[in-house]
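Narrative of activities, Objective 1.

The group set out to show that a structural description can be obtained from nothing but a protein's sequence at a throughput compatible with the screening campaign. Below is one input-output pair from the validation batch, recorded exactly as produced.
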Amino acid sequence: MGAQEGIVSPHRSGFGFVRVEGQKENVFLPPPQMAGLTAGDKVRINVVKGADGRLSGEVEAILARGVTSFLGTVEISGRTAFVHAVDRRLALRCLVPPESLGGVRAGDWVIARITRYPDGERGGVAQIEQRLDPERPLEMACSTAVARFNLPVGFSGEALQEAEAYGERIDPSQARGRVDLRDMPLVTIDGEDARDFDDAVYAEPHPKGFRLVVAIADVSHYVRPGTPLDRDARERGTSVYFPNRVLPMLPTALSNDLCSLAPEVDRLCFASDMVISKTGVLLTSTFYPAVMRSQARLTYGRAYAALFERNPEVCSALGALLPRLEPLVTLYRALLKARVRRGALDFDSAEPTYTFDAQQRVSEIGSYTRNDAHRLIEECMIIANVAAARELLAAKAGGLFRVHATPDEKKLDLLLGALAALGIPGELPEEVTPRDLRRITERLGKSLERPFVESLVVRSMPQAIYQPANIGHFGLALSEYAHFTSPIRRYPDLVVHRALKAVLDARDSSGARFGADELGSLGQDLSRLEKRSDEADRYVDTFLKCSYLRERLGQTFEGLVTTVVEYGCFVQLRGIGVDGLLRVESLLDDDYAQESGGHAWVGRRTGRRLAIGATVRVIVTNANPVEGLIDIELAG
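Output recorded for this entry:
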């Protein structure tokens, strides 16, 4: 088999595996080969296939470390101190020198940073970075995620100084030479807690349908290539949002202030000025640097109440601005119909919301569902992103496209198998389209199973990524698409802004032209950083849900079987949105055997089937927030 590179995944028993991208079978590492390795390490291994067909490896080199900091507990014996990783999968125990203890005591929960990695002869060494209170799960979740995924928190002094040097207001001289949109009734529509306002919108009737102006914060004017601000933003790739804090891509002097399109202040922007047909088709677009003044900062709730519910109180508060906003609704309905005609996927999954008590414990878990105001802004952003991609393609300019490939045949076969196990008819043509997948879920109407089936469809598709080659966006059913609308929080959008500015005016020092190799490297790295952000977000969500359940051991929940495995099945708890493991040895009401094909566990005496999609009542018996593990048993 020869040399391969992959990511290490340790097992508690001392052995481990290496996951090689694009290879279905993981490579086994026996315990001696795991010496000095931790979870997430990137290694080069020599792979051989044994007589039993199993792949095993010998480590040739450690290429990159996956863990730099971790959550641990302190052990002190005499004058010697150690810190143990709480997550047993890391299998880490590091010596802490006295000068690196930072005043912590035995039993304390801490974030520790590795200063020397273990090897075959010596153990690891760590330094205590932060003491945590295990009774404050919100702080624990966020601090552990920052450590686990090596998320940058602070900015360099040079970047902070550069951001603050721009001041709090734009210099009037900066507006000269730009299109003046200050009299246009542009508004921002964002979430209640938003502080970084990337985008503002305005629509009006046009002889061919509609004129839509999407004005985006002109981040590229302030963040120039190669500067300290650019280096720090590039290292992050994206802002990361947790329930109680934001790790911004840019210092707050820019992200929350000078770049943010706050109401009633002049701001520099980069506008996409589009003509859209009455049927929601993009006809023409122009891009230009502009200066604007947002007329209002609307929340999704207020916008929905005024524009869709016609709430008298909210309408009255908007006054003369209201009729200037109404063309947005007509345009939105045209764009929505165009989306349906294309057959684009449109899964409305609810996002979790948390209520915390004074000790940062989760007291309630709810869900936040999008309304038509969310969708209005989403459709405006999508059409602006399409316009940006078309502009790059027409100019033959290098840029980053947001691409989503067609699902591969194996994953679609797995999807059809899962649908068959659920009793849901699903037939797909040889060349599948998003409309074919959409029809599967539309047949379910508003049934309780629909969100789960939608999640199965999502799992069957590849991840959307950034790359210089445009192959279209399968999920949105678009032949060209680029991220343009969120440069405050996404570095790929900043790249697209620079590329577009270079097309518009080669003399513009905030523009940039990119070579193919540079774009290829950027695309790979920014896709990786986006994935890191998503994983950190999911980790915090799971941590908080587990900590909520840990306070409710013994309680009964409705659940839905989501996966059947050789040692039991996973059950998603309704209203919580997290999976618990129902082990086969805990099934005491009958003697269960796995059905041929592995789609269900079946009771020999009762015939009860625990199959994908089955509804069950379960009792939570254990919850481990750090490892994201929940144990459950059948109720009754």
